[in-house]
Amino acid sequence: HVQLVESGGGSVQPGDSLTLSCVASGRTLRSFATGWFRQALGKEREFVGTIKWGGGGTYYSDSFKGRFTISRDNAKDTIYLHMNDLKPEDTAVYYCADQDTPVTGRGFGTEWNHYDTWGQGTQVNVSS
């Protein structure tokens, strides 16, 4: 079965950049897309953005456009979340998740229940 493993989290200062990785293993077929979510303490899981494996198109929540970008490495079956100008409010556990099939009529999923397989998460702390 598919396993997703996130890495790259840590403690950084405001204004810093950080790149998270999500490596997949056990796939027999590529998913439609892999996305990033985050969950701060006491808050709901929040959609960050997602990337298609076929064609590489991306879609972001408006909250993260311009500051966060997602890329992929097909050969390594890995996606990345590049985060710039980090703020204390970016402190959260960041998760990657596979969307196996497109959402009817729109393709990219933006809700947690559009995604089928989740990683364990990686903690990002932003403080001075």
Overview of the structural elements:
The chain has no helices and eleven strands. Strand 7 and strand 8 form a beta hairpin. The protein is mostly beta strands. The model has no long low-confidence stretch (mean pLDDT 95). The strands form two sheets. Strands 2, 4, 5, 6, 9, 10 and 11 form a seven-stranded mixed sheet that branches.
How many helix segments? 0
- Give the CA-based shape: globular
Main sheet summary: 7 strands, mixed
The structural class is mainly beta
Low-confidence segments: none
Give the N-terminus to C-terminus distance in angstroms. Answer: 40 Å
Strand-helix topology:
Blueprint: E1 3-7, E2 10-12, E3 18-25, E4 33-39, E5 46-52, E6 58-60, E7 68-73, E8 78-83, E9 92-99, E10 117-118, E11 122-126
Parallel strand pairs: 2-11
Antiparallel strand pairs: 1-3, 3-8, 4-5, 4-9, 5-6, 7-8, 9-10, 9-11
Short key terms for the protein model shown above:
128 residues, mainly beta, seven-stranded mixed beta sheet, four-stranded antiparallel beta sheet, globular
Quick overview:
This protein has 128 residues and is mainly β. Helix content is 0%, strand content 47%.
